[in-house]
Specification:
Layout: E1 4-10, H1 17-25, E2 32-38, H2 45-55, E3 60-64, H3 73-82, E4 87-92, E5 96-97, H4 101-112, E6 116-125, E7 133-135, E8 145-147, H5 154-159, E9 166-169, H6 170-175, H7 187-198, E10 202-214, H8 230-250, H9 253-272, H10 280-295, H11 299-303, H12 307-318, H13 321-332, E11 336-337, E12 342-344, E13 347-349, H14 358-364, E14 380-381, E15 383-390, E16 395-402, E17 414-422, E18 429-433, E19 436-440, E20 443-450, H15 452-455, E21 465-474, E22 477-484, E23 494-495, E24 507-512, E25 518-523, H16 529-541, H17 543-562, H18 565-574, E26 582-589, H19 598-609, E27 615-620, E28 632-635, H20 639-647, E29 648-653, E30 668-671, H21 686-689, H22 693-703, E31 708-711, H23 714-723, E32 731-733, H24 740-752, H25 759-763, E33 771-775, H26 795-802, E34 806-810, E35 828-830, H27 838-843, E36 846-849, H28 854-858, E37 865-868, H29 872-878, H30 886-889, E38 894-895, H31 898-906, H32 911-914, H33 916-926, H34 934-942
Parallel strand pairs: 1-2, 1-4, 2-3, 6-10, 11-14, 15-22, 26-27, 26-29, 27-28, 29-30, 30-31, 31-32, 33-34, 33-36, 34-35, 36-37, 37-38
Antiparallel strand pairs: 4-9, 5-10, 6-7, 6-9, 8-10, 12-13, 15-16, 16-20, 17-18, 17-21, 19-20, 21-22, 21-25, 23-24, 24-25
């Protein structure tokens, strides 16, 4: 009796069958048999199978079904009946097994006693030059583990629905009469669902076991590449219904919910993406099939998938084609806004027309995505082609650009141009004016006639595909759109004159790209076109073409290699660090280059105020907008950035320059840090304590670069300095330069006997009679349906209850992002985009925070603080821990619930006196060195000699 029987099924695949069988014969486990089952092929497949059996009589047997079954299920069932091994595996004729697959799976099965052993499947895209590979749900296979039930790991049941990357105990298959459904596509899904639920033990191993060969360009498409066939979709739904019934019968509601989520995220999306390219009859049949099945999807599943997937499923079920097809455009092009949107009761919805349906409102509500907050240049707008007319050498085009929530106002100055650009980067592009632009309902209508024959001159050969974009200017602000073909018919082809030769191509043919956008392809229609194309293809694939392509690839690889992280580090240490230090040069950085803010900004501005002569270099990541004029800006991690750091006399930052950059002895590193510590830091964190000695030494080397470390209290000395293992001589007890403004604001308030708001309040539109509260929480991991930080209280309720007296400023952590609904406009204002928090602290009459270090800074103003610690136990006890008990030392009320928070805000005015003593004690303990002269002290100590 063999250890393992591998069932190889084949249908009209004579050429590839030997390779599949050989991958079994070559297994390092020798006691393996091959059972070939031919599904009544019309080619030589069974003949090849018989030849293989004759060549390996002891190891290979071949069988043929009397008639074609139409799918892969029945051949596998027949194969199971003919197997003799203790374990069974399945292999398709166009795939192969990894050479150790049988041994690794058998060992795991014998050791664990499992009914099923599953390993990692790797998809190899055989049509690509380097055979691109992707691992099939690899997170399931990160380590060896054994499950007593599949319910322990719902993701396994839901996502790994293959039958082929698994090894089954044969007695288990026979005992439970496990069979594939006959004559149905997606037979794997049903079989593996039955098997998972029947198995008393399942083992997962991290080894690669199966190579799934993907042939996108195959003449005969696989089932997964024939989604346009309605039978394909009908079979998928029927299989899902059967699995749903199986789960319902067993009362596995959580597994059913997980499967519903997967259906909305994956199965349905695969078919929805094809809808824009299908005709009306196909769409009607698709909707009819979908409607009944979607009615059985749990409403909770819609909450667990990205908004656009839920929106498409809902609109499909409701038969709302006018809104569904544009929504699918966004499904295909993730960031595109393809709907005009609708505002209703202060919320933003994907579309109108379903406000009477509570479930529909919840699905279509896109307020939290924040479309309403974005200016036109940050929106990728749908531009639907409404006219395509071939005029001979020219083409007449027209379209409608979506205008969501009227972001393009009626009186705006509009200007546009069409850009035709070669898809290959760095090649040429051509521009044509858009002659007509006007508002038309909830869209912008445009029209243009472009003489492509005269105005577009491709090279030929290397620029065969041309994409079209419409660049729209709205009052001087530019946004770029792509032309969505939708149902517009593209006919004919245009004459064109390539610069190389017309023998290569002589026509431009319109087509819809894979994402549904208008594009043109160079084609040949001349008498010798076919012969010339054959010669070109031969040349490209021959020795000259190979040499040219090899040279190009080497150049591309070299460029990529030069720009890699490792080579940048080599350039820094081996090249830039050998250049001379540039005297009077300072590289400033705040929050990893994300902001122009904090103490580095305060020091820089004090140096400018004193009129010192020096070269200021600021690093930035993202946009350089809002950084100061008159400085050199360098993008973080770019070569100019590394060169600037290598040659700078001073580094000034508040977090850390890249950890692997060694600081030269001639460079002085002023580390201003970015806040006193409540949360444990550095080597006091459990995660760092658990690191290896080598990892800790590497971390310590980066910290030892600090020549001076600013502290604002002895608390910093006992926490931050100790956690970073800093020497006493490194510490600079001068306070935080960023807090100088806060100390001066309090002193001026005491002198005048009143508070001066300054220009920021007017800039934000805050009236004099409103009290300003600032909500500034610490960093939170993004969550929620849209993957954003969610406020712990309802801002609509806050605005309704307190909006007549207070304006709430919301400042999220710089690594988080928050979206406010339009209903709270003017009463709740998002100020997260402002680089520097200090002016906001100075403006606020009170601070609401949780564990953020802004508490230490704001306390210097001697104004009320409220601590909304809704997740205190989790944050303090399950996180990295704190240096002191906030509940015992907070200089203001600590609340846990939204109701308590509201009650505290109602008595806000009383807190000024009620917590005065606690605030004074808090400042004395945590801000003793903040005297208002930190920036001047730093400049006098390190830069005074640079005066003009």
């Amino acid at each position: 009796m063999p250890d393992v029987s591998v069932v190889v099924i084949v249908y009209n695949d004579a050429d590839r069958l030997p390779t599949a069988v050989q991958s079994v014969l070559d297994q390092t486990l020798r006691d393996v048999e091959v059972v070939i089952v031919d599904d009544c092929s019309t080619d030589r497949s069974f003949e090849v199978a018989q030849q293989l059996a004759a060549a390996h009589p002891e190891r290979v047997r071949a069988f043929q079904l009397p008639e074609n079954s139409g799918a892969g299920g029945e051949p596998r069932n027949a194969g199971i009946r003919h197997t003799r091994g203790r374990y069974v595996m399945f292999l398709d004729s166009d795939d192969v097994l990894e050479v150790n697959a049988c041994r690794n799976m058998l060992d795991a099965a014998e050791e664990s006693g499992s009914d099923i052993v599953s390993g990692l499947c790797v998809r190899l895209h055989k049509d690509t030059r380097n055979q691109k590979r992707d691992e099939w749900y690899s997170w399931l296979y990160s380590t060896t583990r054994t499950l007593e039930s599949v319910t322990e790991l719902p993701d396994l049941f839901v996502w790994d629905t293959l039958s082929t990357n698994k090894c089954y105990r044969r007695d288990f298959l026979i005992e439970h009469d496990l069979r594939f459904p006959k004559g149905m596509f997606y037979e794997d899904l049903m079989f593996i669902a039955d098997a998972y639920l029947a198995a008393q033990r399942i083992t997962l191993i991290p080894n690669q076991v199966y190579f799934w060969h993907v042939y996108e360009r195959a003449a005969v498409k696989s089932v997964t590449n024939r989604r346009h066939e309605m039978t394909n979709y009908a079979h998928r739904l029927e299989i899902h219904r059967r699995i749903d019934a199986l789960l319902a019968e067993r009362g596995l509601t959580e597994l059913k919910l997980a499967k519903d989520v997967k259906f909305l995220k994956h199965d349905l999306v695969l078919h929805l993406r094809d809808l824009p390219f299908r005709d009306e009859s196909y769409r009607r049949e698709f909707a009819e099939l979908s409607r009944e099945y979607l009615a059985g999807i749990a409403p909770e599943a819609y909450e667990r998938v990205p908004a656009i997937q839920a929106i498409c499923a809902y609109l499909l079920q409701r038969g709302d084609w006018d809104n569904l097809i544009p929504a699918v455009d966004t499904l295909i092009n993730r960031d595109k806004v393809s709907s005009p949107l609708a505002e209703h009761d202060g919320r933003i919805y994907w579309c109108g027309g379903h406000f009477d349906d509570a479930f529909g409102r919840s699905v279509l509500d896109v307020t939290d995505i924040g479309y309403h907050e974005k200016p036109v240049n940050q929106l990728f707008l749908r531009n639907q082609l409404t006219r395509y007319q071939d005029l001979g050498g020219a083409v007449s085009l027209a379209g409608r650009i979506t205008n969501p929530l009227g972001v393009i106002p009626p009186g705006a100055r509009l200007k546009g141009e069409l850009e035709f650009s070669a898809r290959r980067r760095s090649l040429q592009s051509f521009h044509f004016p858009v002659g007509e632009l006007r508002h038309e309902g909830d869209a912008i209508h445009w029209a243009a006639t472009t003489d492509l024959t005269a105005g577009l001159r491709p090279l030929g050969i290397v620029d065969s595909i041309w994409d079209v974009r419409l660049r729209l200017e709205v009052d001087g602000v530019r946004t770029t759109t792509r032309l969505t073909v939708a149902d517009t018919e593209l006919t004919g082809s245009l004459p064109v004159r390539p610069r190389l030769t017309r023998m290569v191509a002589d026509r431009l043919q319109p087509h819809a790209s894979a994402k549904g956008h208008l594009a043109f392809r160079l084609v040949s229609e001349g008498a010798n076109a076919e012969r010339m194309q054959e010669l070109i293809t031969r040349g490209v694939r021959g020795k000259p073409g190979t040499l040219a392509k090899t040279g190009y690839r080497k150049a591309k690889a070299l460029r990529k290699k030069v720009a890699s992280g490792d080579n940048k580090l080599r350039a820094y240490h081996e090249v830039f660090c050998r250049l001379p230090i540039k005297k009077r040069t300072v590289v400033f950085e705040s929050h990893l280059g994300k902001q122009y803010s904090d103490s580095p900004r305060a020091i820089y501005e004090e140096m400018r105020r004193q009129g010192l002569e020096f070269e200021a270099i600021w690093s930035y990541s993202g946009s350089p907008k809002d950084f100061p004029k008159g400085v050199t800006l360098v993008k973080r991690w770019s070569l100019p950035y590394l060169k600037a750091l290598a040659q700078a006399e001073f580094w000034v930052d508040n977090q850390s320059y890249p950890l692997k950059l060694t600081k030269r002895p001639e460079t002085t590193y002023l580390q201003t840090w970015h806040g006193s510590a409540l949360k444990k830091m550095g080597f006091d964190q459990p995660a760092l304590k658990a690191q290896t000695r080598q990892q800790q030494e590497e971390q310590q080397r980066s910290l030892d670069r600090f020549d001076r470390f600013l502290v604002r209290s002895e608390h910093d000395v006992h926490t931050l300095a100790k956690a970073f293992r800093l020497k006493e001589k490194t510490l600079l007890r001068v306070g935080y330069p960023r807090n100088d403004a806060l100390v001066r604001a309090r002193q001026r308030e005491e002198e005048l006997g009143r508070r001066e708001r300054g220009p920021l309040a007017a800039e934000l539109g805050i009236s004099e009679d409103k009290t300003v509260l600032l909500y500034a929480p610490t960093f939170r991991k993004a969550g929620g349906r849209h993957g954003r930080f969610e406020l712990p209280f309802a801002v609509e309720r806050f605005a309704e209850q307190f909006g007549d007296r207070y304006v709430l400023l919301v400042r999220s952590h710089y690594l988080n992002h928050v979206v406010l609904p339009p209903t709270v406009q003017g009463r709740v204002i998002d100020v997260s985009a402002r680089h520097d928090v200090t002016p906001l602290l100075a403006l606020a009459d009170g601070l609401i925070t949780d564990y953020s270090s802004v508490m230490f800074d704001y306390a210097l103003l001697d104004r009320p603080l409220v601590f909304f610690t809704y997740d205190y136990d989790e944050y303090v006890h399950e996180g990295r821990g704190t240096y002191f008990d906030l509940l015992a030392h907070a200089p203001g009320p600590v609340v846990r619930t939204e109701d308590d928070f509201h009650e505290t805000i109602k008595s806000f005015e009383k807190q000024t006196l009620e917590y005065a003593r606690q605030r004074a004690e808090f400042v004395a303990r945590f801000g003793e060195y903040d005297r208002g002269d930190a920036a001047r002290s730093i400049v006098d100590q390190f830069f005074a000699q640079w005066s003009r």
